[in-house]
Known about the structure:
- The structure holds two protein chains of two kinds.
- By secondary structure, chain A is α+β, with helices and mostly antiparallel strands.
- Chain A folds into three domains: 3-147, no CATH class; 160-182 and 230-330, Roll (PH-domain like), CATH 2.30.29; 186-225.
- Chain A has helices at residues 3-32, 56-78, 87-112, 127-147, 186-208, 217-228, 269-273, 313-330; strands at residues 39-43, 49-53, 173-180, 232-237, 240-245, 251-255, 259-267, 277-281, 284-288, 292-299, 304-308.
- Chain A has a five-stranded mixed beta sheet. Chain A has a four-stranded antiparallel beta sheet with strand order 3-4-5-6, covered by helices on one side.
- In chain A, a hairpin with a 5-residue loop joins β5 and β6.
- Chain B is mainly alpha-helical.
- Chain B has two domains: 13-76, Orthogonal Bundle (Arc Repressor Mutant, subunit A), CATH 1.10.10; 84-115, no CATH class.
- Helices cover 55% and strands 10% of the residues of chain B.
- Chain B is built from five helices and three strands, in the order βαααββαα.
- In chain B, a hairpin with a 3-residue loop joins β2 and β3.
- Chain B is globular.
- Chain B starts with a strand and ends with a helix.
- Chain A binds chain B through residues 168-179, 235, 237-239, 314-315, 318, and chain B through 1-8, 34, 37, 41-42, 45-48.
Amino acid sequence: xxxxxxxxxxxIGLALPVAILVISLAVMFWALSDLPDPVxxxxxxxxxxxxxxxxxxxxxxxxVTVLAYLxxxxxxxxxxxxxxxxxxQRILLxxxxxLSTVLGxxxxxxxxxxxxxxxxxxxxxxxxxxxxxxxxxxxxxAVSYLLLPAGPAVEAIxxxxxxxxxxxxxDETAVWIRQVRPVGAALAIILTAGAILFIAxxxxxxxxxxxxxxxxxxxxxxxxxxxxxxxxxxxxxRHGVLLRGALTWPVIRIPxxxxxxxxxxxxxPLSDFGGWGLRWAPRTTGIIVRRGEALExxxxxxxxxxxxxxRAAPGAELLNALVLxxxxxxx
Amino acid sequence: xxxxVDPASALPLFEQLVTGIRGQIIGGSLSAGExxxxxxxxxxxxxxxxxxxxxxxxxxxxxxFLDLRRGRGAIVADRARDYxxxxxxxxxxxxxxxxxGLTPAALSSLIREAYE
Lengths: 331, 116
């Protein structure tokens, strides 16, 4: 990654949203000198003001939201990505200018249109401001995305022969089995808390309005799916790679003859995959439950598989040995 | 857990399994409460007979390393907890035997004698 494209990422991902934030705040300060008291702070679906209060909230909401989001691109940029940002990282970087524009135009515009009014209730519709905010945000975000440097279209797949492999006898068979799970109790606590809240919610609703229990079907499925995608059993053997979710589902199978090589890589869930769980990144499927070490299984012409787990090296070495032996046997 | 079996080895297959699993329990990479794969799955992975795996699991149960429960599979026993000291001493023992030029067979027969 050269310094010019790195600089461009910094300008678009961080400097641009901050600049838009500063301009929006400046407009808000300019409007402040001539505003009705109280100002309109909320508008109904027709665009007419329906709630009034102090303009202070807008001054806090805007910088806090934008700066909180920028922690994410800052993290992406702090992490070395030698081959240029992935599509996922480009999206994370481009959302900064988008978010900054939408919030900046809505909040600054919402105050600016009230300038010179005696009574905020008589103010004009907010709808043109909202349209401008989203239109402008989408344009700024899309242009930012396109201006960001892109990583190479196809990354060279390492050959198993060039990677560490476990010595394996001609007739020897081997199996490597590991549990894939989050570090510490954080995620387990979140899932348990989710389950408890869920059961409490269902119980209360069942008493008040039994039919409304149906509303909980979707959250229930999400919770179960979240659990199933957080705990896995990974098996590497003569057939290839097998991943089985905690509820014996989902099952992901990669036959040995599709595998090109395996290696240990380092994964940052947010900047590499945009989060945790079963993830799809460009050309890669990820089972991402923790940061740090991960096993990457490369396939020729197909999506790679990345599974986060510690002490992954023996698995990679076994897989490379199996691949090499199969290749030798085929010839 | 990593397990290898080599049909070309002089050691019977079930013994290779026993040695591999026991070594990992003592070495700490398999800890108490951890579940081993079902015998059928392990046999499939390693391309060996399911009875070979069951035999290995039974020997490890008799040695106190595994709990075998119907329907729950094989679980590393609670008793199998603190082998750190033993593992350390074994490493020391082997190093000393190597320094003296003793073969593994000679060292294990010394250990066997000490038991009797």
